[in-house]
Design goal:
single chain, mainly alpha, 2 domains, 86% helix, elongated
Amino acid sequence: MKRQVFVGLVLAVAATGVLTGCQSAYYGAWEKVGVHKRDIMVDRVEDAREAQQDAQEEFNSALEELQTLLGSDGGDLQRAYEKAADEYESAYDAAEKVRDRVDGVESVATALFEEWQQEIGEISKASLRSSSQKQLRETERNYQQMIRSMRRAESKMDPVLTTMKDNMLFLKHNLNARTVGSIQAEFDSLKQDINGLIKEMNVSIEESNRFIESMKQ
């Protein structure tokens, strides 16, 4: 289930959730049209995965522009700095989007697992109840592995953004070739950190893919 298919419906459902201020109303509105928490969870994991992919591109672009800035000379410095600053802002926005998407995954996961556990208690046949409980535990294990990976990748974004911001502010106050050259060591360290972040995001993306497949089976 992709939200693009239900654009008009999403707006109505979202409005319901906002007006009531209640997550249960939001999920209830979706269920009335046959879209359950399981479907929403898969959709949100896909969104989080896409947000991480976008963030990878933005952080790479920021690194490239900073590298261009380090290689610039007098006349090109201001323009190169402005481009690098813009890319930092884009990377920051992409990181915020990742955080929001991962928070959304956690929110629906909590609702899904609570509902699932409650409904297991309503199954009268022991064999079916046991089978559903086993499936729930397996899904929770897969989810915990995925969400830990997402959070690990997320935790690596802040140090990178902090370093980038420090460098951009430092350069802003004294933009000349000598100042630019003085942050070369910082750039080398930043490059390693961004490469590490991208690798961690790749792991998270793979975990997301596995979880999505397990939920669709």
